[in-house]
Amino acid sequence: MKLETVLVDTAMRRAGLCTWIPEGEGKWSLPLQFLPDGSGWVELMRLKPGTRLGLHRHTGEVHALTLAGQRRLNDGRIVRAGDYIFEPAGNVDWWEAIGHEDLLVHVVVKGSVEYLGAHHSVLQRITAADRVADYHQHCAVIGVKPNKLA
């Protein structure tokens, strides 16, 4: 059994879920931990090849370990399974899943994620409270009680 399969199965059990949380076309998440005082979250993120995360800024640092698949960063770098990326607070970028298999990334997000429009205006802000609410809503939809992930 592949390591990423073991990690996903373990994360599903920990979260009490049987399905990924859909976040839009070609993108899903699986929460691992919500950090104290709403300071951030830890999750597995899965994207279908061709799915792009638009221009965004992080208000806190981000640590991302690619477990499977590949992604192309806006600076042209290709990130593959086993590659680790650190993004400092204030980092602005976009990236896309590429290749032939789903991208699976273990990510630690401090602060919030701000999706940006023209002149870097904030179109959408995602906070830890939003991620908790998404988890609780998904649990309600599939009929399970949320686990304590704090």
Task: Tell me the count of domains.
Answer: 1
Give the CATH topology.
Jelly Rolls
Spatial extent as radius of gyration: 15 Å
Cα-to-Cα separation, first versus last residue: 29 Å
Q: Strand sequence of the main sheet, in spatial order?
A: 1-2-3-10-5-8
Fraction of residues in H or I helices? 10-25%
Q: Which class best fits the helix and strand makeup?
A: alpha+beta
Q: State the total count of DSSP E strands.
A: 12
Topology of this structure?
Blueprint: H1 3-15, E1 21-24, E2 27-34, E3 40-47, E4 52-58, E5 62-68, E6 70-73, E7 78-80, E8 84-87, E9 92-98, E10 103-110, E11 113-116, E12 122-126, H2 128-142
Antiparallel strand pairs: 1-2, 2-3, 3-10, 4-9, 4-11, 5-8, 5-10, 6-7, 6-9, 11-12
Domain ChrR-like cupin: 18-92
Protein name: ChrR-like cupin domain-containing protein
InterPro entries: ChrR-like_cupin_dom, RmlC-like_jellyroll, RmlC_Cupin_sf
